[in-house]
Amino acid sequence: MRKDIWGTEAEEMETDDSELGFWSTFHNVGGGGAEGRGFGVDVDFNEKSENFLQWIIGSRHSASGGNGSQGVNLDVNLNLGLGGESSCSSSSMIATGRENCNRDIQNKRPKVHSFSLDWGTNFENEMHDLAPVHEEVGDEDLPDSSITGGNGKNHDDTLKIADSEVRMDLTDDLLHMVFTFLDHIDLCRAARVCRQWRDASSHEDFWRYLNFENRFISVQQFDDMCRRYPNATAVNIYGAPAIHPLVMKAISSLRNLEVLTLGKGQLGETFFQALTDCHMLKSLTINDATLGNGIQEIPIHHDRLHDLHIVKCRVLRISISDETLREIAMTCGNLHILDASYCPNISLETVRLPMLTVLKLHSCEGITSASMAAIASSYMLEVLELDNCSLLTSVSLDLPRLKNIRLVHCRKFVDLNLRSSVLSSITVSNCGSLQRISITSNALKKLVLQKQESLTTLALQCQSLQEVDLTECESLTNSICEVFSTRGGCPLLRSLVLDSCESLTAVSFCSTSLVSLSLAGCRAITSLELRCPYLEHVSLDGCDHLERASFSPVGLRSLNLGICPKLNVLHVEAPVMVSLELKGCGVLSEALIHCPLLTSLDASFCSQLKDDCLSATTSSCPLIESLVLMSCPSVGPDGLSSLHCLPHLTYLDLSYTFLVNLQPVFDSCLYLKVLKLQACKYLSDTSLEPLYKGGALPASVNWTCPMGHSASPQ
Q1: Helix (H) or strand (E) holding 201
Q2: What would you measure as the largest C-alpha separation in the chain, in angstroms?
Q3: What is the mean pLDDT of each run of 10 residues along the chain (714 residues)?
Q4: Which of 228, 341, 210 is nearest to 287 (CA)?
Q5: Strands 283-287 vs 290-291: parallel, antiparallel or unpaired
Q6: pTM higher than 0.85 for the full model?
Q7: Cβ contacts of residue 480 below 8 Å, gap of 6+?
Q8: Contact predicate 322/350, CB 8 Å
């Protein structure tokens, strides 16, 4: 049977020059012949069709992850309509397909009947091959004699024909399913395998979108495609030669056209006039094209057009102006999206587009502050982009639906005033002249305004704002602190970055929501006051001119102020703090530390730290276990006597001090395990005798003598 089928089919393929010629020509347009994949009309169809099926399933199925809505079983022999013996897996799939056919008959595509082949008497054998192999069949399930080759004269011929239609439809449906994974080029290659594949690949389901982007196709070839697939709804001829005659052919032939994309060529005025005849058109994109042929304006009239994109288009002796946009506004009342980027003569001053939701005006030199009145009239506007509008100086908009705004590289831009309850994204970058910003929004959660060197005033009423980054806003003054305090309009603010804001001198925040604060590189700050009970992270790197600091109260667990060498007054009230480092605060003379959970205090090189400060600290921080007072020459006997308030003290470093008597230490630190006395040159041998002879520190396991030698108690 297979031999008969392929012989007849090959003869029909050879004689049908017009059909095969079209596919062959279009295939060459796609860039590469069928031989590139190992398939052609002059090869063994039986072998090649099976190989091609394996290639389709292997590549497309794996690419889709094998879980698509139209996935197929890889064990199925899809060569059902080509004869041959059935495998076990194919028989099972056929049975399943028959059930699915009955179950999904309402959702099945229109049947495709391929009865042009000479099936002859061998059709009975073909139907016999489709029977399941592994099922146990009883007498009542045996095929009718008309199917298995018995006497068929006593049975109804109509039943046989109906049954054959169902079987053939199943085969075409499976082939149709496989072909849904192919793009247009692969469909053309498949069409060269055999007549059945050509018929299947020509189905209009696969040609709703005619995509010829950057492909060489003649007007005649495109006309053939339009005649073959008159129900196509989308066309892309961007980069194709002679786009004007091609698009005119599409407009005149495709009555259901909804999406049209074209560019890289010249479009005459007749194209814009003909758009009126394309009644179903909803989206038009023209990119990198030359418009017009000497006319003074380009009219666009259309009632259904929603999306219009005209990008990087040049004109011949005309300028796309506000008059053009007024015509668009009058004739396209439902226009929602307008991208008029790179149109230098557009100002919008006399244009009203009330239904716009998206407006993009990149590099429009005619856009100025006077244009804002027209934009404000678009009360449906959700997205506004004004990048590289070099003459724009201010933006003031009160739009209830505005969600997203972009202002990038607007070099003369000075003032921004926005009011929108749903505003959720603001992008402002490289606007070197920007001085004032006022934002009112209930949806904005993150605001990034980095490197706005001229920004001096920021007013925010943003009830949902949680993150703010003002890095390198060098002109911000101390008044910024009021904006981010509890009563400043950002009650939910959690993270604030003010790195390298070098005009800040006195910073004071009172916030019940602030969790993280960064002031790195703010070298001019001399005073810092933080009343933020939930503050967990603070960065003061580079704040080397800080003189007075108050952290009361804060939620910090650790704090390092050793990077602030000029700090002289410190107040810390931190209920959960366990570690405090003051190493290097050489001029610190006044310290009030109230940290009931503090276990480690390093006051190395705090040369001005006196006994009264030490006594107050030991009284309010009773859980200290490690205390470093190295190079603290102002600490004397009174301060050491206060160590009796630290019952958990096990580590004490008094190196490089001027101590002459250790008796206060012996009396107060009964549980001390480590005592360091390096370079304590004023200690005499007599003062060390209690360590050698009297067992002054019974819990001590190690101590370091003044000469730097370690010893253990005897």
Answers
A1: helix 195-201
A2: 133
A3: 39 42 43 36 41 46 40 34 36 40 41 35 32 35 38 45 45 85 85 87 87 89 89 92 90 91 86 84 88 63 81 66 84 87 87 92 92 93 95 95 96 96 95 96 96 95 96 94 91 96 95 96 96 96 94 96 92 97 92 96 93 94 96 91 93 91 86 88 78 65 53 44
A4: 341
A5: unpaired
A6: no
A7: 458, 470, 498, 501, 504
A8: yes
